[in-house]
Amino acid sequence: MQISNDRHIQRAAMFGVAVLLAGGLMLAGVSARLSAGEEDSAEAAKKDAKMEQAMFGAGCFWGVEETFRKVKGVQETAVGYSGGHTASPTYKEVCTDKTGHAEVVHVSYDPGKVSYEELLKVFWENHNPTQLNRQGPDTGTQYRSVVFYYNDAQKTAAEKSKQALQESEAFKGRKIVTVIEPAQEFYRAEEYHQRYLEKRGQASCHL
Q1: Which domain holds residue 189?
Q2: What pLDDT, on the 0 to 100 scale, is given for residue 113?
């Protein structure tokens, strides 16, 4: 009878050890997953910290976004509205030409892969900055040519590039009307506008 009790005690002890080991392994696994998650979050934070932002208006934002989205070093793009006097405007409201907003593309980029000066070059080369409040057949203040700068360095770079382009006579004496002004609040446009051309398998607008 004593032998039987001893066996029960041994089995219970072994079971307890097994449970403790299993629990330890589970905790280790959870800890490892948490550590991995923390590392991923840290890496994402570092990546975001490296990103800088820029914002441009150059006519219909569909084509402008598609152009910037293809630039190496551009991490993310979004189309929206900025530079007006109405909070959270809709596309329909902006199209009335009464909100004061321009159609813009907000760009998040890695300055280690693409410079702000290179983004300005893309901006200048992909619209006509001598057209006032229009781009081709699209007319209204929402289509104006504008650089919204986020810091003094961007302001200086934009003004310098504008002056150089004007002096180059690339537009045969026509005045560049692009406005360079401090960045205002960016209102993200309705979701169907985001990556509009990509969703439709198009590379560019009619322009």
Answers
A1: 51-199
A2: 98
Q: Do residue 56 and residue 45 come from a single domain?
A: no
SS3 80: strand
Q: Which of 184, 122, 177 is nearest to 150 (CA)?
A: 184
For residue 23, pLDDT over 60 is answered with no
Please identify which of the residues 60, 146, 158, 165 carries the catalytic annotation. Answer: 60
> Do residues 66 and 164 lie in contact, with contact meaning Cβ atoms separated by under 8 Å?
no
pLDDT higher than 50, residue 128: yes
pTM of the predicted model, to two decimals?
0.77
Residues 97 and 170 in one domain: yes
Q: Are residues 40 and 139 in the same domain?
A: no
Is residue 160 within 8 A of residue 153, CB to CB? The reply is: no
Q: Where are the alpha helices (DSSP H) in the chain?
A: 2-50, 61-69, 91-94, 116-125, 152-167, 196-199
Within 10 A of 156 (CB to CB), how many other CB atoms are there?
Answer: 13
- 95 in catalytic set: no
Give the pLDDT of residue 2. Answer: 46
Does the pLDDT of residue 41 top 90, yes or no? no
d(CA 106, CA 194): 11
